[in-house]
Design goal:
CATH architecture: 3-Layer(aba) Sandwich
Number of strands: 8
Largest sheet: 8 strands, mixed
Order of helices and strands: EHHEHEHHHEHEEEHE
Radius of gyration: 21 Å
Strand order of the largest sheet: 3-2-4-1-6-8-5-7
Helix content: 25-40%
Shape: globular
CATH superfamily: Phosphoglycerate mutase-like
Structural class: alpha/beta
Number of helices: 8
Number of domains: 1
Distance between the termini: 54 Å
Length: 322
């Protein structure tokens, strides 16, 4: 099974340098073009998407829709989930990044401690991890092993949350069962696979979850084994759902506080599977793309506005009889 963890296209708050976690920020004109390029690229390069999961926020859903519309053969459905939305940044929502001083760097690296999270009414990392665990248990685990190896899932979400989701997935596998394609190693920003750096707009992480039949990589020279967990992570497969906080947000997400990861489910269901990482923050689909001149690329996309191809009707393919 192949998974694509995709960040949404560029938004008006991205270009304005404004924090927008749970805010429903709109795509820019350039952001919409990015999503279209992504959808075309995946279709052209043989990615047959079977299922799409998306954050319920519009910037992610519109990105998911751009992927869906080019998947003519598989016609995947889009499942919109609040579990996949971005971290609620509380006090920082809607504020200029440049106005927050040194704390802005901590925010961008997602290293705000619990005390500051509480003071600033932010959603804690423990709550993010709990959401990630709920998504894995309720939506992903039943697909692993039950679908063909070429079954492909696209998960469209947000930069901070995608990082937490990836870490939650890593905790389900031992280091010996995770390989990374050699040319991807240089993109890591830390000592192990937890540190993927930031997701660019429409950038995606690509990896396969495959059944272990003796665990022989397709090409030993193409894949490396790399450290996965910090010491504190080893054996850490217990759900963080008990840490779900009751943070305030525009559209509160309600969780079942009794949710736990089933230890037997983890040990038996994923024991015979391994991960191969094939691309980190891939943006090949944006090669050669330049932003529209005159600042129009930074403007909020207006769905009622025609794109240039709409002004030129498709030529009739039937030959005229003379």
């Amino acid at each position: 099974m192949k998974l694509l963890l995709i960040r949404h296209g560029e938004t008006v708050d991205n270009v304005s340098g404004i924090y927008a976690g749970s805010l429903d920020s709109s795509l820019t004109n350039h952001g919409l073009i990015q999503t279209d390029k992504l959808g075309r690229y995946l279709q052209k390069n043989g990615y047959q998407i079977n299922q799409i999961f998306s954050s319920d926020l519009q910037r992610a859903f519109l990105t998911a829709h751009a992927i869906q519309k080019y998947q003519i053969n598989s016609s995947p459905s889009i499942t919109r989930l609040k579990h996949l939305r971005e971290q609620d940044l509380g006090f920082f929502e809607g504020r200029k990044i440049s106005s927050q001083g040194p704390i802005s760097k901590l925010l961008s690296n997602n290293v705000i401690d619990e005390k500051v999270s509480i003071q600033r009414k932010m959603e804690s990392t423990r709550s993010l991890d709990a959401r990630a665990d709920i998504f894995i248990d309720n939506y992903l685990l039943n697909l692993v092993g039950n679908e063909a190896e070429n079954y492909t899932i696209a998960i469209v979400s947000h930069g901070i949350f995608l990082g937490r989701l990836w870490r939650a997935l890593l905790k389900r596998f031992s280091s010996s069962k995770i390989r990374i394609q050699s040319d991807c190693s240089r993109k890591l920003t830390g000592p192990n696979l937890k540190y993927l750096g930031n997701w660019s707009n429409t950038g995606y992480l690509e990896f396969d979850i495959l059944e272990d039949r003796g665990f022989h990589p397709r090409s030993k020279t193409d894949f490396n084994t790399i450290s996965v967990h910090d010491t504190s992570d080893v054996g850490s497969q217990q759900s963080s759902s008990r840490y779900l906080d009751r943070h305030k947000c525009n559209n509160p997400i309600h969780y079942d506080a009794s949710h736990r990861i089933s230890e037997s489910r983890i040990n038996h269901h994923l024991l015979n599977f391994f991960i191969e990482v094939r691309a980190i923050n891939s943006q090949d689909h944006l090669n050669g793309l330049q932003k529209l001149r005159g600042g129009t690329g930074n403007l909020k996309h207006d769905p009622s506005q025609k794109t240039i191809d709409k002004y030129f009707p498709v030529a009739n393919k039937k030959q005229r009889v003379l």
